[in-house]
Amino acid sequence: MERNRTADLLKGLAVIFMIQVHLVELFAAPDIYGSWIGKISLFIGGPPAAPVFMVVMGYYFASSKRSIKSGIIRGLKLILLGFILNAGLNLHLFIMIAKGSIVTSPWPYLFGVDILFLAGLSLIILTIVKHYFNLKLWPYVIIMTLVFFIQFFDTAADQTKFSAYFKAYFMGNGIWWSYFPLIPWLAYPVLGFIFNILMHRFADIYQKVRLHLLIISGIITFVFIGYGLDIASVLPEYYHHGILFFLYTCCFLIFLSIIIEILSNTNETWFSKWAEWLGIHVTAIYVIQWLLIGNLATVFYKTRGYLELVVWFIVVLLITSVFGFLWVRIRMNFNAKYFNLM
Questions:
Q1: Is 32 in contact with 24 (CB distance < 8 Å)?
Q2: pTM of the entire structure?
Q3: How confident is the model at residue 335, as a pLDDT?
């Protein structure tokens, strides 16, 4: 599959934004979290983070040559990885619960619906639809429309019932551990898929109107920035947002993508190379940073000040990058030795 530098840079920046917001959510003292700086941090970790991952995933999948079997298996692997990651990032918490030091139920943490579950389920759905309809535009437009139509029926669930653990993966209204349910988040990989189709069909037109798109999307982004901040800084509303915030995020992503596309055509710097590398290896980086932050959170939960947050941000970025590099090298060597892929 041919890589797109703009897409990889977007994912790399999204990783950086994601790490900072995870630290603020879990490490920052309440006065910082509730401040205007905390609000900006949550916005930076909102539209430019998870939506970017999902849109780029959909964009790349539209060009993928995966068979239906391969696509479904990949989706199932991501779901399995989600369960493994939940166990790993909450390992210290589970130990504290077992010791009686922390009194809470472990099940919402083990079955918490994070982005890997969304990615896996979305990939399975896109694989099946693509198998039957290939790159026809209308099925994906219908799916996106259905996402927000179905959302009207997403009534608040009773968290005490076992069925809430199942519902959380699909519609998570009222379920605090449902961070990225299929409704509404499926709309983002579908959007990326649609972007890919449109970019290939109307590449020449896009180049002619790119500046106009940049200006219009930029105006909308900044005129309604207060709305974006209000939704992104209240996590339950962000995780279960409706079509208006989706449309705002679309405009924001168009604005951001065009800027990154323009910058990607300039001279490469160490930062752009590093960010691009993070984007290419985003799954490994995502897992590593969560293993670090998740297990440290039980020690530093909502107690760190500004300087400590900055220090931890640098430390986590550095450790994640180093371990990510080692993981990639080990995997490459393993593939070269046993699968002759080099």
A1: yes
A2: 0.93
A3: 65
